[in-house]
Design a protein that fits this description.
With 221 residues, the chain is α+β, with helices and mostly antiparallel strands. It is built from 7 helices and 12 strands.
Length: 221
């Protein structure tokens, strides 16, 4: 299958591009050529790893399907997809609904995005709408999916208030989704730059410094 490029960590602040074997698509798997990969806050360990690790960071991925393995029916080469990095058993009720994170049997967080190509289960891929770029697609599962899952459990609607603590990437997505539902938002963040960015990017959000939000802090632990 030849080789491809991949980023690996060899020590503190020592990232290297190395040659590794190309992945092969097993049964029920597809090969995705990575076109965009986000850098999540949880990836910071990759920058400070103490020793060489073959675990590859990067779990916010979108790309192009280039090959399919035996048994794959819903995807074909040329499809543009976003990739869910959470892998479940694929057989339980939660997995059959696509909620791999709630799988009671096995939950594996796949790291792979800092590679040219990856092999992933067919069921972990979501076809991208033509209107979405790869960069937008890379944010669908982790960045937007996390707050969407939380809001989906509520009856929030026009006129309701939503409190969002933190105006980072996921917080901004939560604000946007709440505003889309017609809710009024109080966004809290101690970092002035983030509050300013939230004010520019999101309409109808009241921004608070968070310095006097002891009640929220105590309740959230």
């Amino acid at each position: 299958f030849g080789t491809m490029k991949q980023v690996q960590a060899f020590g503190p602040q020592d990232l290297r591009v190395v040659d590794v074997p190309e992945p092969a698509a097993g049964a029920g798997e597809v090969i995705v050529e990575v076109r965009a990969c986000g850098i999540c806050g949880s990836d910071k360990w990759f920058w400070n790893v103490e020793r060489h690790s073959e675990y590859v960071a990067g779990h916010e991925v979108a790309g192009l399907v280039t090959a399919v393995g035996p048994g794959v029916r819903s995807l074909q080469p040329g499809d543009r997809v976003a990739v869910n990095n959470v892998k479940g058993c694929g057989e339980c009720p939660a997995c059959l609904e696509g909620a791999f994170i709630r799988c009671p049997n096995t939950v594996e967080h796949m790291g792979f995005g800092f590679s040219e190509r990856i092999a992933v289960p067919e069921r972990n891929c979501l076809l991208l709408d033509p209107s979405l770029s790869y960069e937008q697609g890379a944010l669908l599962f982790d960045n937007w999916g996390t707050p969407y899952s939380a809001l989906a459990r509520t009856s929030m609607g026009p006129g309701d208030w939503a409190a969002v603590t933190g105006c980072g990437p996921i917080g901004l997505a939560a604000i946007g989704l709440a505003v889309q539902r017609g809710a009024r938002v109080a966004a809290v963040d101690p970092i002035a730059e983030r509050r300013q960015y939230a004010g520019v990017s999101v309409v109808r959000a009241d921004l608070i410094s968070g310095k006097k939000c002891g009640t929220v802090g105590n309740s959230a632990g």
